[in-house]
Hints:
Layout: H1 12-38, H2 45-52, H3 56-62, H4 66-80, H5 95-110, H6 113-125, H7 130-157, H8 166-178, H9 181-188, H10 194-212, H11 228-232
Amino acid sequence: MVTSSSHAAPSPAVAGSARTERKHAQILASARTLFMAGGFDTTSVDAIARHAGVSKATVYGHFADKDALLLALVEADCRSMGEQLWIRDGRPIDLERDLRQIARRFLAMFLDGRGLAMHRLVMSCASRYPAIAEAFMTAGPDRCEAEVAAFLRAAEAQGLIDVPNARLAAMQFLTLIQGRLPLTWALSMKAPSEAVYRAQIEGGIKVFIAAYGRTGAGPKRRTGAVSTSAARRPLGTPVRRP
């Protein structure tokens, strides 16, 4: 009787697919190394092929041209860099705790050597290759803002904040907690100290909660309301007190 074995050799089709995936990954890894070390314009397809240990024809078999290779690299790296900013775990939201966790996860993507190098590469190519900029925005900032906006809507549903425009509030929060940290590191090649990093996050959270936080479970605060007597009183008129 013939029995199947878990250690049987893979079929030629499966083996061929695995080899194709390995070569694809090799080419992407080599392109990443060379693009980030020497720039996109100065790196040739020949150099990528040599670095990857494949033929130039193999590179073109996977990617139509160097532009397509760069686009694939940006998309792949943006998907793989950083974890999801907010994960629904069923627990009630603790606003400060969860905003702090979101902030640390977000900044970890910027304050990482690979993330910084990718950001520089995209900035150097974006004006000439709009598809690169669009792919970066979709997989990076747009995704992050959408995840934070989902968190803010959930926090609002629990009565913790008032956010008339969750997507705008998400963008404002991420801007507050990153400040100039990514720019400073990009220019100086030095990561911020832990004290600076922590102060940026805590300050951003404090400002954000001051703007959107609710002080109680009552109705939303009315802003801009002026009493009738105050509205009619001329500027500079002293207020009579009993």
